[in-house]
Design a protein that fits this description.
Elements: E1 5-11, H1 17-31, E2 38-44, H2 56-64, H3 81-84, E3 87-90, H4 93-102, E4 110-113, H5 134-163
Helix pairs in contact: 1-5, 2-5
Length: about 160
């Protein structure tokens, strides 16, 4: 069996934005029939919440849309992730800066933003809902769902090109 294409979603603490992005993209990958070819994970640039489940507000908002985040646990990005993952997606500029600082020179991973496919220049950032109200978690889902549909198309093209 061929190696799976691996995608890592990254935010600061790995309890709101990146677990949501992981759950949504994983569901879209499954719906597209690519689950056997693409794996999705998430991590945080900071060690604030290692081992914790996603924020209950993220879980509740996601579950209302059919995404179950309950099995996920927060972890911190490691140098090894730059070899394990093909595509590492940051929630915002601060997390991208942290990823670039950690990224070893020999990294094979492509770095980009979670919302890059939406075409905003500069790349639109996923707003951090942690200190806001419940509506912020729905806004995060709206943005990530839109981007995930486009990421799946890009993944499909990438896999097709690799097979040729």
């Amino acid at each position: 069996m061929a190696k799976q294409y691996a995608v890592l979603m990254v935010c600061m603490g790995n309890i709101c934005r990146s677990p949501t992005a992981e759950g949504v993209l994983r569901a879209h990958v499954q719906q597209a029939g690519l689950a056997g070819q693409v794996t999705v994970d998430s991590a945080g640039t900071h060690a604030y919440h290692i081992g914790e489940a996603p924020d209950p507000r993220s879980c509740k908002a996601a579950l209302r849309r059919g995404y179950d985040l309950s099995a996920q646990r927060a972890r911190q990005v490691s140098v090894a992730d730059f070899q394990r993952f093909d595509l590492i997606l940051a929630a915002d500029r601060a997390n991208m800066a942290a990823l670039r600082a950690l990224c070893p020179p020999e990294s094979r991973a492509r770095l980009d933003f979670i919302l890059a496919p939406l075409g905003q220049q500069p790349a639109l950032e996923v707003p951090d809902p942690y200190y806001g109200g419940a509506g912020g978690f729905d806004r995060v889902l709206d943005l990530i769902e839109q981007a995930s549909v486009l990421w799946v198309e890009q993944l499909r093209q990438t896999l097709r090109a690799a097979a040729d």
